Amino acid sequence: MTTLSPYAAIIFGMVLAAWLGAAVWALASGQRMRREGTQAQGKLDRLAVLMASAPAAPVIIHPDGRLEAADRLAKWLGKPRVPTFASELTDADGGLEPEDAAALAREIASAQRAGKSFALPVRGQGSSRLLLVRGAPAGPGLAESGGVVLWIFDATDSQAEIQDLKSHVDQLRDALEALAGLVEAAPFPMWHRTPDLRLSLVNSAYVRAVDGEDAADVIANGIELVEMAGGVSPQAAAAEAVAQDAPVERMVPATIDGERRTMRVVDVPLGPAGVAGYAVDQHELEQARVEHRRLETAQRDLLDRLSAGVARFGPDRALRFWNQPFISLFALRQDALADAPLFERVLDQMRDARRLPEHRDFPAWRTERRNWFLSPDAQEENWLLQDGTHLRVYAQPLPDGGLLLIFEDRTEQVQLSSARDTLLRVRTATFDNLFESIGVFSADGRLQMWNSRFRTIWGAAEDLLASHPRIDDLMRAVQGQLAKPQQSNLVRELVRAATVERKQRAGHVGFADGRLFEFAAIPLPDGNALFTMLDVTDSRRVEQMLRDRNEALEQADKVKTAFVTNMSYELRTPLTTISGFAEMMSAGYAGALSEAAQGYVDGILQSTARLSMLIDNVLDLTQGEVGTLAIDHMPVDLAMVARASAERLKPEASAKGIDLATSLQGSLGSVQGDARRIGQAIDHLLENAIRYCGKGARILLHGDGTADKARIVVSDNGPGIASGQQKAIFDPAARADQARNGGRAGIGLPLARQLAEAHGGTLTLVSRPGQGTMATIELPRG
User: Fold this and answer.
1) Band of the pLDDT at 703, cuts 50, 70, 90?
2) Residue 121 in 3-state DSSP?
3) Is residue 87 part of a domain?
4) Is position 256 within any domain?
5) Are strands 659-664 and 698-705 parallel, antiparallel or unpaired?
6) Which of 401, 483, 681, 738 could form a disulfide with 315 if both were Cys (CB 3.0 to 4.6 A apart)?
7) CB contact burial 61-70 (16+ within 10 A = b; e otherwise)
8) Closest to 765 in 3D by CA, of 730, 717, 735
9) Are residues 654 and 774 in the same domain?
10) Into how many domains does the chain fold?
């Protein structure tokens, strides 16, 4: 056995230690490499899973055209397997549309030659699938130089979503443009503030309201629509809206277009987008509200003044308004209505006051009336109350859901209607029994009403009249009744004038049987015409007789006048002869006369003078009655004429013991006329007063005048004249009767009146028994 030396043992030990260390290192390295391999395999597996689940399929194209790709590429292309070469992908049968396949081939070639990246959308052949291909040169670790890496994405869903997003974006853009246009076209100011409350957008109305040049100028200068209102600035109001996260409204005054207006300003918070605002002109609205309140007050005042009862209920059926006639009509207490009772309660109160119609089922009746609130149209009813009151009830639903009730007391109208019906019946009976023939024609000329006399006179059949014929047809049917059938045209024209022209016409017509009728067509207020006929046959005969008699009397009067005139002239001749011989005897031509003879001659002279005067008076009176009395027109001094008459008659008055006095004022003046005739009238008045006054009486001749007329008054304190006799003094027939009965028919006063009237004046007589008489002549100055 060989024994190692220590040195060798040390070397061997060192070699063995080195080998053992190497083994340990190798074992540790193997374990580490195994762990790293395991980790790399796990990482590779995870990468493979990640690549399989990636949204894009990787494709490597080597320089020689070989193709490496994921299996899902075949599914996307609609192929059973993945293409082996790039040419299979880009040819006509590669699964892509021909144009897209050609474009992909060009892009791949460009990337291989120039190392250019590209992105290209392609579509599967005959499929709606859209693929997005992104290509780039392959790195050294993937392929040799000239290789290309393709990432193919299935963009079908993404593209659809993109299209939807684009459509939504377009819609939002259109809406934004429309909104911007709406804001710009808004007739009231609108604006937007940024989160820091600065103006960023205003519309044209805002620019006009602040008199700005344009929107940019307003925003740049920060011109506010309302500077301060109630100590609150616009920015503070906007900040309040942001703080409350709710719109803030306020009423502020503003000057718009030089006018002071009331604006309702609203600030609306928009979150991070800032604050929007707008201002609405409330001036006209406020005016409308004031006008509405004024109209409502006027309406209430008007309704309160109506004689009809008025009650208005609100949408909640509570009583909101009533007038005084409503309370009086239904005997209600005002304090019971003050707490706004409901509709049903008001009806109950009306029933308690016994001011509603009687009904067996009052609750059902009340429910039906409550439905008035829901009725689309107005309702109208007539109520007959227990005391006989007739009410017309008008229920008008209001737009706000309320109800307006109007109660009109028609009791008087009903009574009047009943009275009218009675009156119509009485009128019909009277109408049918009148002696006159009466027919009523309407505006179109049709016969509407007639009485039995009308039918009898015209001999018309009842069925003809019942058909209400027109006047033309009626006249054609009855014209045979007329003596002259063509006179039917006259009747027709009169009815037409009364109905169309509204003129009243009259006439007469003769019938074939000799009867004579007067007829008239009279317009009625209702547009109709009344046609009346009256049988005047007998009255016409009497009229003719009277006319003949009157002509005979006129002829006799002419004969009488001629006789009186002739007799007056015939009597003058012997009277003049007698008067002449008497004057000759009184003058002594026949010798001296004894005292007795002289008295006889004086009596003859006085009688002839008086007879001559009476003849002149009779002649003047006769001429005055026939209008042939001659009157001169010369200036007449009335005072001179009156004094002369007084002087002539004063001896006669003195002989009877009568005091004749005169009182002629300077205003009496003169007139144009006949002095002799005026003096003659004064003489007659004085003679009449002297004749009827007794001894001790007093007669006054008074004269005065005005600028227009003169007045002569003869008054006395004699016995006077009874009122019944005063009219007879001036009546010729009464004077004739008085003369035939042996009375004194004096002609002085009638002749004096004729003389005054011949001068255009008047003579009036005022007398009372026991108080004297006053006769007044008034003569015009002209």
Assistant:
1) very high
2) strand
3) yes
4) yes
5) parallel
6) 401
7) bbeeeebebb
8) 730
9) yes
10) 7
Residue closest to 104 by CA, chosen among 71, 70, 134, 68: 134
d(CA 307, CA 404): 16
184 and 202 Cβ atoms separated by less than 8 Å: no
Residue 703 makes CB contacts below 8 A (sequence gap 6+) with: 638, 639, 642, 663, 664, 665, 668, 710, 711, 712, 713
Going by the DSSP 8-state scheme, the letter that residue 138 receives in this structure is P
Domain with residue 460: its CATH number is 3.30.450.20
Catalogue the E-assigned strands of 639-747. Answer: 659-664, 670-673, 698-705, 709-716
Q: Whole domain around residue 11: which residue ranges?
A: 1-53
Evaluate if residue 543 carries a pLDDT over 50: yes
Last-in-domain residue among 605, 629, 653: 629
Residue 466, phi-psi category: left (phi > 0), alpha (psi -120 to 50), beta (remainder): alpha
Assess if residue 66 is contained within a domain.
yes
The angle that helices 675-692 and 638-655 make with each other, rounded to 10 degrees, is 30
**Torsion, CA 634, CA 640, CA 646, CA 649, rounded to 10:** -60
pLDDT for the residue numbered 742: 41
Is residue 422 classed as helix, strand or coil in its secondary structure? helix
Give the single-character DSSP code of 66: B
Q: What is the DSSP string of 229-250?
A: BTTB-HHHHHHHHHHHTS-EEE
Q: Are the CB atoms for 595 and 545 separated by under 8 Å?
A: no
Q: Which element (helix H / strand E) includes 679?
A: helix 675-692
Q: Which two tokens stand for residue 697?
A: 């009486």
Q: How far out from the chain centre does Cα 241 lie?
A: 50
Residue 477 CB coordination number (10 Å): 17
Burial of 41 (0-12, 13-18, 19+ CB in 10 A): exposed
Q: Decide if pLDDT at 704 tops 90.
A: yes
Q: Does residue 423 carry a pLDDT above 50?
A: yes
Neighbour count for residue 745 (Cβ, 10 Å): 17
